[in-house]
Amino acid sequence: MSEQSSRPTEQAGTSALDGHSLAALRLLARAPLQSQRELATALGMSLGRTNFVLRALLEKGHVKVRNFRKSGNKLAYAYVLTPSGIAEKLRLTRRFIQRKEEEFEQLRLAIYELKAELETGSTTQKNCENE
After folding, report:
1. 1-20: per-residue pLDDT in tens?
2. Closest-CA residue to 38 (of 19, 24, 52)
3. Which pairing describes strands 77-81 and 63-67: parallel, antiparallel, or unpaired?
4. Are 89 and 25 in contact (CB under 8 A)?
5. How far from 29 is each of 5, 67, 96, CA to CA, in Å?
6. What pTM was estimated for this model as a whole?
7. Helical H runs in 1-131?
8. pLDDT tens-digit series, residues 72-112
């Protein structure tokens, strides 16, 4: 595997990572003091994938990490959304909604066509039975 393709920022254009990024950004906006393990659990992802997503967001400047040195827990961090992180969250949200609306329309059309086939099929079956 090339060095470029293994970097989080190089793969950030994929829709799977976009979905994970959006979920992480939404969760961090509400609860920035979560540990990576808590974040992974809340997102339903492995700890490794969560770390990958967070590093991609950090490298892009969408999230900042703040260490609370006064905390009794030396590993206490806050993941704070930056202005670019807020903008990215909005961009990903718009894109997600657009994609889901397109999927909804396709599904609605497929359901309409299937219902029409059922009606035609039942009419055809009744005609065959009457003959």
Report:
1. 333 444 443 333 457 788 99
2. 24
3. antiparallel
4. yes
5. 28, 17, 17
6. 0.69
7. 15-30, 36-43, 47-59, 83-130
8. 655 678 899 999 999 999 999 999 999 999 999 999 999 99
Whole-Å CA distances, 107 to 59, 95, 97, 115, 123: 37, 18, 15, 12, 24
Query: Is residue 27 predicted with pLDDT exceeding 50?
Result: yes
Dihedral angle at the C-alpha atoms of 27, 37, 40, 58, nearest 10 degrees?
Answer: 60
DSSP letter string over 97-127? HHHHHHHHHHHHHHHHHHHHHHHHHHHHHHH
Q: How far is CA 19 from the centre of its chain?
A: 2
- Residue 57 contacts residue 63 (beta carbons within 8 Å): yes
Query: How far is Cα 48 from Cα 8, in angstroms, rounded to an integer?
Result: 12
Q: pLDDT > 70: what percent of the chain?
A: 76
Cβ-contact 104, 120 below 8 angstroms? no
Strand partners, 81: 63
CB 35 within 8 A of CB 77: yes
